[in-house]
Design goal:
Layout: E1 7-10, H1 14-23, E2 29-33, H2 37-40, H3 43-54, E3 58-61, H4 70-82, E4 87-92, H5 94-109, E5 128-132, E6 144-148, E7 155-159, E8 167-170, H6 180-199, H7 208-227, H8 232-252, H9 256-259, H10 262-268, H11 272-277, H12 280-287, H13 292-302, H14 306-313, H15 326-338, H16 340-343, H17 351-359
Parallel strand pairs: 1-8, 2-3, 2-4, 4-5, 5-8
Antiparallel strand pairs: 6-7
Helix pairs in contact: 1-3, 4-5, 6-7, 6-8, 7-8, 15-17
The protein binds NADP nicotinamide-adenine-dinucleotide phosphate and fe (iii) ion.
NADP nicotinamide-adenine-dinucleotide phosphate (NAP) binds near residues 175, 177 and 272.
Amino acid sequence: MIYLPTRIFFGKAALAEAAGQIAVLGNRALIVTGKSSAVESGALADLLPILADKGIPYSIFSEISENPDTLQIMAGKAKMVSEGCDFVIGIGGGSPLDAAKAISLAAANDLSQDQLYDADMRRKAFPIVAIATTHGTGSELTPYSVLTDASSRRKAGFGSELIFPKIAIIDPAYTLTTSPKVSLNTSIDALSHLLEGIYSTQRSPLLFPMIFRGIKLIRDHLELCLKEPQNMRAREALCLASMYGGIAIAHTSTTLQHSIGYPFTTQFGIPHGLANGMFMEVIMRFYAPVIKDELDALFTYLGCDMESFLGWLDKFPIKVRVPADDAQLRAWIPQILAARNTVISPVQPSAEELFTILKNVQKEGS
Ligand code: NAP
Ligand code: FE
């Protein structure tokens, strides 16, 4: 089954094309952004005249950091309520987009910080428009929001159909200003989503044509994008791949490949995509025996075998090592094993297997 209630506008001038659809979503918009990407990407400059033209007033909340935490969501909710906004427009990478979704839920249901992860408290949401400025998370068309719990400092996602954006805007021009590091890390996140669409026990062959194409687009364009950041053809390809990755995980969710990286992001500040990339090879090797048919189909499509694919992946600086000692790695095992995305992995690792996987990213001497 494929279900996607988001209208996707893709390509040059996608935002202008969506203007009429945006205008009917509400009477006052809360625009949710990070510190500078909404301006740097050019997306905000495109949006404001559209809102002016349609007579829609707005407030801007630009306090979202990378890996947004629940305190920021509460501050956004307060602004949304006090300014009487009735729909949300997120502009950014996954961080502002996930925050926009959570703010919409928090304001619509009057949630407290402790209730953000409580599925029973979610009855409605204000409409969400998501304007992507990175080619990574696919958050503009997923029902997920990944937050850091401000009390425990744990990073964890939740899903609710209520927060599927009504409208996703994917204009590759907005990604031209991402730094080489963000371009790489976000592309690796998209690659991870695509692979996890195959790995997940909720996988569906209906999605495989998109997934295979997305992986090929990344394999064929990532180096070009890093060499020539202004290359529009490469950016378009990576945006398409990221969109396919989002559509995949909207249906299959992510797996251990994601949950394993979260503590490395919160503890060592490793950007999300890179935290997936650190484990990409070891997880593929771990899963490969039980999803052999699916991976065979993928590599036949790509015209290579797993080893040459992993050889290609090795060209990128994603095998980060961290100074975590054995005790620290072992302390994370229960939370990784209990994560909802670990549970839908094709193989459930034992605690000892997981420890062996984690040891791969340990700096020598730690
Ligand atoms: P991000 O955290 O949104 O942004 C990373 C950095 O890139 C920030 O400094 C940001 O600046 C900057 N940036 C973004 N777009 C830019 C542009 N066009 N030009 C210049 N700088 C730009 O990165 P992300 O990888 O897209 O999102 C990661 C988050 O998404 C994580 O929290 C992850 O867990 C989550 N995620 C969510 C889903 C989902 O389905 N909801 C899936 C995977 C991951 P600003 O600070 O100014 O914005
Ligand atoms: Fe991700």
